[in-house]
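User: Design a sequence. Structure:
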C-alpha cells in the first residue's frame, strides 16, 4: 500500500529537466539524423561547400548575451557535455525526429524574427545581459503546466547554455514559469509566439552550474531554504545571475539571505565588487551597503584614533593593555593590511598624548625622589611606583613606535632632549627606577643608528648631550632588565649616532665613554668599533690631511 505521506510530498512535479542521457536523435545532433544529413547534402549542393557548423548557425533562434559569473564558484556537477538533451530524472521525452527536423526547417526561415529579438536586447555583449534591478515583483502563481498563450504540455522552451570552455548544457523548461520569473526571458519568449518549441541560447556562460542553479530556483517555492544549503559564496554568484536575467524573486531572496549571515573578508570583497556593477533598489540592499561602507560616521578617523590611543595609555589592566596595544598598532601602521585609503593620523593628537604621558612620568619621578630610602616606594594611590613608572615608559615607547612607523618621530627627539626635570631627578632617583628613562633613549638611538629616524644635527646633538651620560650609567640595569630590548642593536645604534656628529663633539662624548668603560667594563656599552672609526677620521695619514686641508 502506498504511503500517504509519500503520495502527498514525494511526487511533487518538477518543471525543469536536468539529467544526462544517451545522445538522442534531435536537431541538436544532426550527425545522427538521416533527415538532417539529407537536408545538409541538399544545402551543400545548393550553396556550395561550407563548414558544417555554419549550417547549424542558421537553425539557432533567440540569443541572449553572456551572464558574467565568478570563476571561483565552479560547480562540478556539470561535466564536459556535448550538445544533448537534458531530461528530467527517470523519464525520456519522446520527440519525433521528423517533427524536429520540420521545426528546425521552419526556424531557419524565421531568422528575421530571431534577429529582431536580438536587436531588442542591448548591443554590448558585456552589458546587454546586465540590468539595474528595480523593486522585486511578487512571484506569479502561474501553473507550470501551462505555457505562454495557454498551451499545455510543460516543456516548450529549450534553453541552450554554452560555456566559455566549450561545455554545453541544455535545459527544457516551461515557458510560463520562465516568463513569470525573468523579465529578460519573458521578452524573448514573447517574441517566439506561435512556435512549437522556443529555443533560447546563452553563449559564453562562465559558470554553467551557477546558471543552472539559478534557473532551478524559479521552480522552488521557498528559495531561502535552498540558499541555506547552497552557502554564502555560491549565493553571491546566484545573485549576480538573478540580477542579470531580472529574476526579481531570486534577487530579493539572495539579498535577504546575505544580509542575515556573517561574512568573511573574501565574501565582503566579492559583495563590494558586485554592488559596484549592479544597483539594487531595496531596503535589504541598503542594509548590506551599510555593512560594506559607513556613509555617515559619528566620529572622524583622526578623532577615533586619538580616543583609542588615550584609552589604551590610561588602561589599568596589563593584559588588556598589551592586547589592545598590539591591535591598535597593527591598525594604525602604514604597512597594515586593514588600511584602505584612510586619511593620515593627526600628528598633533599623538604628541598631545605623548605629552600627557610625560607629565604623568614627571609626577611619578617626583614621588620616587621624595620617598624614604630603604622603604617600599608606593604612590599616593597605593600602587608600587616602579610598576606605574614602567607602565608610563611602555606607553611612551609604544607611541614612539607608531610615530616611527609613520615617519613622524623627528619632533619627539627635541621633546625628549628638553626634559630637564627628568634629567635632574635621574641623578637623585634609585637605579632600579631611573633606568626606565634610558629605555626611551634606547629606542631613539636604535632608530637613528638603523636609519629609521632622520633628525637634524641640532636634535641629534641635543639628544646625545642630554641622555648619553645617563645611558652609560643605566646600561648595566638595561642588560639585567631588558624587557625586549636588543642590547647589541643598542650598542651599534649608539655608535652610529655618535659618528653623525662633528668630530669635536664626537671627541667629547667618546672620551666620556672611554673613562666609563675603563672603570665599569661590561656595565657600559661597548663602542669600540665606533671609537676606531672616530680615531681614523680624527687622525688621518699625512697625505690625506694635506688633501683635505687643500680643499
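Assistant: Done.
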Amino acid at each position: 500500500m502506498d504511503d500517504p505521506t509519500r503520495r502527498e510530498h514525494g511526487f511533487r512535479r518538477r518543471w525543469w529537466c536536468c539529467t544526462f542521457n544517451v545522445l538522442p536523435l534531435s536537431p541538436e545532433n544532426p550527425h545522427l539524423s538521416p533527415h538532417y544529413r539529407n537536408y545538409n547534402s541538399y544545402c551543400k549542393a545548393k550553396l556550395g561547400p561550407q563548414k558544417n557548423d555554419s549550417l547549424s548557425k542558421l537553425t539557432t533562434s533567440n540569443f541572449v548575451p553572456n551572464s558574467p559569473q565568478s570563476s571561483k564558484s565552479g560547480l562540478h556537477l556539470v561535466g564536459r557535455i556535448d550538445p544533448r538533451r537534458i531530461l528530467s530524472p527517470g523519464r525520456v521525452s519522446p520527440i519525433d525526429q521528423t517533427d524536429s527536423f520540420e521545426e528546425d526547417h521552419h526556424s531557419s526561415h524565421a531568422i528575421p524574427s530571431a534577429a529582431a529579438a536580438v536587436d531588442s536586447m542591448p548591443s554590448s555583449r558585456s552589458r546587454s545581459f546586465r540590468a539595474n534591478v528595480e523593486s522585486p515583483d511578487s512571484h506569479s502563481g502561474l501553473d507550470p503546466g501551462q505555457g505562454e498563450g495557454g498551451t499545455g504540455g510543460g516543456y516548450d522552451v529549450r534553453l541552450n547554455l554554452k560555456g566559455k570552455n566549450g561545455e554545453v548544457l541544455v535545459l527544457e523548461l516551461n515557458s510560463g514559469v520562465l516568463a513569470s520569473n525573468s523579465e529578460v526571458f519573458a521578452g524573448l519568449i514573447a517574441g517566439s509566439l506561435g512556435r512549437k518549441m522556443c529555443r533560447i541560447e546563452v553563449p559564453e556562460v562562465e559558470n554553467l552550474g551557477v546558471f543552472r542553479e539559478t534557473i532551478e530556483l524559479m521552480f522552488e517555492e521557498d528559495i531561502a531554504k535552498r540558499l541555506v544549503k547552497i552557502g554564502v559564496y555560491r549565493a553571491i554568484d546566484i545573485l549576480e545571475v538573478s540580477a542579470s536575467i531580472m529574476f526579481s524573486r531570486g534577487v530579493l531572496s539572495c539579498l535577504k539571505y546575505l544580509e542575515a549571515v556573517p561574512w568573511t573578508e573574501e565574501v565582503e570583497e566579492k559583495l563590494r565588487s558586485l554592488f559596484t556593477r549592479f544597483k539594487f533598489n531595496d531596503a535589504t540592499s541598503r542594509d548590506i551597503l551599510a555593512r560594506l561602507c559607513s556613509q555617515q560616521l559619528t566620529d572622524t578617523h583622526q578623532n577615533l584614533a586619538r580616543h583609542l590611543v588615550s584609552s589604551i595609555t590610561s588602561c589599568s589592566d596589563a593584559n588588556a593593555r598589551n592586547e589592545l596595544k598590539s591591535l591598535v598598532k597593527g591598525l594604525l601602521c602604514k604597512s597594515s593590511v586593514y588600511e584602505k585609503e584612510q586619511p593620515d593620523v593627526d600628528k598633533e593628537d599623538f604628541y598631545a598624548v605623548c605629552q600627557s604621558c610625560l607629565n604623568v612620568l614627571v609626577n611619578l619621578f617626583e614621588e620616587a625622589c621624595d620617598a624614604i630610602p630603604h622603604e617600599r616606594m608606593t604612590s599616593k594611590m597605593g600602587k608600587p611606583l616602579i610598576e606605574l613608572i614602567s607602565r608610563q615608559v611602555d606607553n611612551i615607547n609604544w607611541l614612539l613606535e607608531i610615530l616611527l612607523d609613520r615617519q613622524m618621530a623627528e619632533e619627539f627627539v627635541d621633546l625628549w632632549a628638553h626634559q630637564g626635570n627628568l634629567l635632574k631627578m635621574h641623578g637623585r632617583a634609585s637605579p632600579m627606577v631611573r633606568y626606565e628613562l634610558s629605555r626611551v633613549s634606547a629606542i631613539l638611538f636604535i632608530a637613528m643608528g638603523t636609519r629609521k629616524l632622520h633628525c637634524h644635527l641640532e636634535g641629534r646633538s641635543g639628544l646625545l648631550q642630554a641622555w648619553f651620560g645617563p645611558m652609560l650609567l643605566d646600561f648595566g640595569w638595561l642588560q639585567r632588565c631588558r624587557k625586549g630590548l636588543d642590547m647589541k642593536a643598542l650598542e651599534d645604534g649608539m655608535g652610529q649616532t655618535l659618528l653623525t656628529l662633528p668630530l669635536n663633539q664626537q671627541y667629547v662624548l667618546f672620551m666620556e665613554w672611554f673613562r666609563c668603560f675603563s672603570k665599569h667594563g661590561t656595565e657600559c656599552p661597548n663602542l669600540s668599533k665606533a671609537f676606531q672609526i672616530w680615531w681614523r677620521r680624527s687622525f688621518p695619514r699625512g697625505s690625506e690631511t694635506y688633501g683635505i686641508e687643500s680643499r
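The longest strand covers residues 198-205. The radius of gyration is 40 Å.
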